[in-house]
Amino acid sequence: MTSQDNMSEEHLPEAAHGHGGGPVVSKDGYFADPGLPPHEHRRTDIDEKAARRAERQVAMWFLLSMLATVGFIASYVIFKPGPTHHVFIWPIGNVSPLNFALGVTLGISLFAIGAGAVHWARTLMSDEEHIAERHPIEATPEVREQVFADFRQGSKESGFGRRKLIRNTMIGAMAMVPLSAVVLFRDLGPLPEKKLDTTGWKAGMLLKNMNTGEPIQASDVQVGSLTFAMPADLSEDDEDFQERIAKDALMLVRLQPGDIKDKKSADWGYHGVLAFSKICTHVGCPISLYEQQTHHVLCPCHQSTFDLSDGARVIFGPAGHALPQLQIGVDNTGNLEALNGFTVPVGPGFWERSE
């Protein structure tokens, strides 16, 4: 007698018992397939009033998502960030109202879309079970046609085309959720507006030595030397020092008048003293390497090379355009001063760059 013969009825799976309580066993000794239980219709399948109520419930979830998205954007505008703007919320503790509001509204927005979709599927979409036999990977034309037919049938049974309230509110909720990301991307930083086109240099502003902080006399700049300068109104203690020095930094060089090849460059200087932007026009690195014999300056980041004797044009490397030149002169005490601001944007090129 085999172990199968010794198996008692109390150890048999419930599905293996027939209607009379005994096990249903085939002739070869294996349990017969009990099959699927009878399909039970949901209330929404047989009661149109219940179906309409479920439709309104799904629409309310999607409307809630839309309202939460509006709340997210409103919170971003209303609440201020920063360590000084905190409130106590039990049981979380001290939190930023901005972060709390953004998290709650965005969470509700996403949850409501998911809840609406789940409730729609559970109450209104078709829930009948269908057996699909396994088939070869390469489907026959008949199978492919059946797949498309099933898809069309499923679309019809879902009521997506017929239940316009659900469709329209779901589309509205899905369309509004990305607005949260748009608002976040918008505030990754302030729009540059014209800030990339302008610097702190103005007519009459003195040039100050970046190391000593003293005004620079024309006589202080010797032939073959390279001097770094900044506007006289700029100090390292200023809150916006880093932002301004990234655009306002200058390098001064003195050349013999006969060595200056570009006439405009010579006219914008003072007795051979020329002032150029210190910011490389490739990616904005500060230029600091100078060759006295060739009058070339080299950017240490990517080896862009500029000829200061020829209007600081690019002679090598990835930089796209020459270093901007600042027109300079002297005041009545011999201090170097700007006669104008930069006429072209300093630093790297950008797609909105105005020339």
UniProtKB/TrEMBL annotation:
Molecular function terms, GO-annotated: 2 iron, 2 sulfur cluster binding; metal ion binding; monooxygenase activity; oxidoreductase activity, acting on paired donors, with incorporation or reduction of molecular oxygen
Keyword Iron: yes
UniProt xrefs under PANTHER family: CYTOCHROME B-C1 COMPLEX SUBUNIT RIESKE, MITOCHONDRIAL (PTHR10134)
Gene Ontology terms: cellular component: plasma membrane
InterPro entries: QcrA_N, Rieske_2Fe-2S, Rieske_2Fe-2S_sf, Rieske_Fe-S_prot
Signal peptide stretch: none
Membrane topology field: Multi-pass membrane protein
Ranges annotated as biased composition (Basic and acidic residues): 8-17
Originating organism: Streptacidiphilus jiangxiensis
Main subcellular location of this protein, as a coarse class: membrane
UniProt function note: Iron-sulfur subunit of the cytochrome bc1 complex, an essential component of the respiratory electron transport chain required for ATP synthesis. The bc1 complex catalyzes the oxidation of menaquinol and the reduction of cytochrome c in the respiratory chain. The bc1 complex operates through a Q-cycle mechanism that couples electron transfer to generation of the proton gradient that drives ATP synthesis.
Subcellular location field: Cell membrane
Protein name listed in UniProt: Cytochrome bc1 complex Rieske iron-sulfur subunit
Subunit note: The cytochrome bc1 complex is composed of a cytochrome b (QcrB), the Rieske iron-sulfur protein (QcrA) and a diheme cytochrome c (QcrC) subunit.
TM region(s), chain numbering: 58-79, 99-121, 165-185
Domain of life: Bacteria
Cell wall biogenesis/degradation as UniProt keyword: no
